[in-house]
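Notebook entry, structure prediction.
Reason for the run: the old model in the group folder had no record of what sequence produced it. Starting over properly, with the input documented here first.
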Amino acid sequence: MTDDNYKNIETLLKIFTFDKKKDLKKYCRKIVIHNRAFADIIVASKLGKLPFLHESYFGDFMPEELILTDADHKAISSNGVGKLKPNAKKAVNKISQSFEKRKHSCGHLFLAYDLREWHFFLF
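New structure, fully documented this time:
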């Protein structure tokens, strides 16, 4: 690991030391968290090298109105080759919009072994 990697890890680990939210926010405005440092902390936690357990969460959100119904599936499958019929076109538009409107989230929980302290990162 290079000196820069160690500095990035130390910068990230300092986040875990703040007791007051305003101090944490002030610190976070001045730093950049590098993905490598974040990954290294996850691995170190998994290997027991840090006093934290690590759990992750991955989720997707799709607006209800963009979820394809059985009628949408049927409209697409029965359309055949060629110009889209109105119901099939509506279903295809839903699919297109879903790529723009869906949201992905990823959360990382670092939990002290005694369960008295935790830190959660949400992306």
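Summary: The chain is about 45% helix and 20% strand.
The old model has been moved to the deprecated folder.
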